[in-house]
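Q: What does the predicted 3D structure of Probable peptidoglycan glycosyltransferase FtsW look like?
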Amino acid sequence: MTSLTRDGRGAAATRGGAQEWTVASVGEWLRSPVAPYYLVLVSATVLTGLGLVMVLSASSVGSYATSGSSYTVFLDQLLYASLGIGLAVVASRLPVSWWKKLAWPAIFVALLLQALVFTSLGVGEFQGNNNWISIGGRTIQPSEFGKIALVVFGAAVLATKRRVIHRIGHATVPLVFPFGIVLVGLVLQGHDLGTAMIMLAILVGMLWAAGLPAKWFLGVGAVAVAGVAFLAAGSANRMQRIQVWIGGICDNPHAATGCFQKVHAEWALADGGWWGLGLGESREKWGLLPEPHNDFILAIIGEELGLGGTVAVLALFAVLAYACYRIVSQAEDTFVRLAASGVMIWLLTQAMLNIGSVIGMLPIIGVPLPLVSSGGSALVAALIGVGLLLSLARAVPGARERLSPRTSRLSRTLAALPTRRTTVAGTRGTRKRSGSTHSATKPGSSRRTAPPPTSRAARGRRGASPARSRGPQGRTGRRGR
């Protein structure tokens, strides 16, 4: 009995020690400089993969009804995901110096593309918005790429003005005036209030991260709230959504206009319960819930995968947010800190607006869930943003050396070369000063050496010249070889 008790205590102690060791190892890894890089990579990869699976499930019925194939929407999403992943790989390999150089071209290209919406390339109004252009038979939403242009441009401008950021004129020109206001104004001209709100959040968040005094944000916040209220009041569709959100008129989804989508999203989440109906078993995607594969894909995730699926999505965005925070807190370059802040604000603000709309905490705003919802432009732009985050994570002190062991070994080798050259140069100087000789032979052949001459005449009799001398004998001569 005593032996069994001792064995049990020993096993318990062993398990306790293993658990403590595991927790300590995880904590140590999270504190390492490479943790943000891998956290961004893993969370974004899982969200993108989950999004592809759920787009296939949520769009299969509607896609079959419109095109005769259950895979039409999914194949388009897969194509855009492949393009976005390729661009993300390229973006992750670009050094920070290149991102700084791309700041000004990016903002001008973003303004040009957004202006094309109001030309013959524009596809016209769709679901109340006019923010798409058609190029080569494909529709593109320029405002999605305007977000990343705004992040890179804002980080570059504010980094150069870090010493005068406390002056409101230097802080807002040219980021807010004229480029930010013009870009947001063009988006609002297309009636896309949700995207404009995300852009404004990027601008305000980056100014905060840059260190603009807090007193200025009181005025900015008041102006922003007043502007959103004015734009909402001027649109019957937006006022209807706000009334549906706070009016309590949706007990019957058919009783009031605008309740149908909100109520069916809540029903989808309720039907999923704790464990879900199973992958592909959604009922709401059978023509009941509008946009099940786009803005309301989280409702389908909750219905098919249950509470665990929705919590997993929230946890993945939390991991992404933590990784961005680590980049911001550890970076020494001001551009890196501000760009990471901008991408974090962009992705998390958009995720919160989408999730709040689906669960009823916010009025329906109409923005996709980053990396998950269907939509080519949104997915490609978000993946480029992830690539930018990976590039910034590589710039964290100590991360590049550990992420690129081959490059590190090459750097160490190149760093050692000047030392060897210095040694050889010093040896050659010793040769000239000593004036001794040895016979020149090929490597690996036998070599007979003569004793060092004791006088210039003796050296002349032996026929040796200082110019042909390969090095003195002795310890220095062996080192010179």
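A (community wiki): The structure tokens above were generated from the sequence. DSSP finds 19 helices and two strands in the chain. The longest strand covers residues 133-135.
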